[in-house]
Amino acid sequence: MATSSGARRNAADDTAQPLRYAYHYCNVRPGLPPVTGPQMGDERASAINTLRDKWLNGTELTYYFYDQPTDGQNVLLADGSTRFVPWAGPDAQKQAVRKAFKVWADLGLGLRFKEVPAREQALIRIGFMAGDGSWSYVGRVVREIPAGERTMNIGWDVTQDLDTAIHEIGHTLGFNHEHQNPFSGIVWDEEKVYAALAAPPNRWPREKTHFNILRKLDPSTVEGTSWDPDSVMHYPFDAGLILEPAKYRMEPLQPPGGLSARDIAQVRKVYPAQPPVNEFEELALSESRRLTIAAGQQIDLRLKPSRTRNYQIATFGEADTLVALYEDVGGELKFLAGDDDSGEDRNAQLRLRLQRTRNYVLRVRMYFASFAGETAVMWW
């Protein structure tokens, strides 16, 4: 792997001058907004917001590469003219991104990744638009991006820079930039950072630099209170941009490349390996099932309707939950509906028509419960 963490050295700059401030950086797109409000205590806010961008475990993340000559957009040039820039990329670039998905998949996660032939089937839609940088939306917010728009872009050659593709997929899994961790202790030489990122190859305005580097994440969105400078989600930085920790005044901060031990532990905690779908426990009709799962955990239950009719599914009790229902089609789960009541004074509820002889899977994630063991789920 080349340089790490959503960045790469610019070859032209490397030959023209010493290796200083010559990284291309990822320009991340936002995820879901943190839940806030006067009714939110610190514990509740943290329990919700550390998982708010994350997918329900067991989700199949489908991805698609734009590949048609008409895929792209018109770009306004400095002289006032426009030029069409394609989104499609060469096969070698696509193959590198496939390898990056495999790096995550080989960890044995509960998530699955599947390339699909049509953009309408894809949650993740990947372009290779030159001049647009490398970026991805964070986590579940990709469901809100209109069909036909990219949710990820690879803006430079990643055949020799696999970490950039791994980094962008990390965003799609719901992980933010580690150098923006509010517990990192990083103190920036801010004007030097602005100047460095305004120069080639990034040419970022101040607001983009602030959003991607200087802005600290909301503490409620960060699990734990420690910092991982080795994370694949951490940018590299040349010496002098960081004032504290003091050692980075004189030496660069350079993650070693690839997933760090903390990256692996964290993603396995959020997305642990799952049993086959047919081994999920059945929830009987009109049975009130007490939710004994802890904050951050998930339960998967099978529903088998004996009649075709309209049904309701709901959680009960003072809890923040995310629920989703899927149809089991030969072991493949097709998403039907979901509801997220996190931060609201209500319970998650679904109303939909289920078919006799078909099988369904209900997933319930517990964000936070006011009182352990006093929440339940039921369908009727």
Could you explain how this protein is built, in words?
This protein has 380 residues and is of the alpha+beta class. It has two domains: 7-270, 3-Layer(aba) Sandwich (Collagenase (Catalytic Domain)), CATH 3.40.390; 277-379, Jelly Rolls (Sandwich), CATH 2.60.120. It has helices at residues 11-16, 42-49, 91-105, 162-172, 190-198, 206-214, 261-270; strands spanning 7-9, 23-25, 60-65, 72-76, 82-86, 112-115, 124-127, 135-136, 152-153, 187-188, 242-244, 281-282, 289-290, 298-303, 309-316, 319-329, 332-340, 349-354, 359-369, 376-379. The strands form six sheets. It has a five-stranded mixed sheet, with helices on one face. Strands 12-14-19-16-17 form a five-stranded mixed sheet. It has a four-stranded antiparallel sheet with strand order 13-20-15-18, with no helix packed on it.
Descriptive labels:
380 residues, alpha+beta, Collagenase (Catalytic Domain), Jelly Rolls, 2 domains, 5-stranded mixed β-sheet, Peptidase metallopeptidase domain-containing protein, Peptidase_M12A, Peptidase_Metallo
Give the name of the CATH architecture of the largest domain: 3-Layer(aba) Sandwich
Which range best describes the helical content: under 10%, 10-25%, 25-40%, 40-55%, 55-70% or over 70%?
A: 10-25%
Q: What is CATH's topology name of the largest domain?
A: Collagenase (Catalytic Domain)
Structurally, the number of domains stands at: 2
DSSP strand count: 20
Largest sheet: 5 strands, mixed
Share in β-strands: 25-35%
Mean pLDDT: 92
Number of helices: 7
CATH evolutionary superfamily of the largest domain? Collagenase (Catalytic Domain)
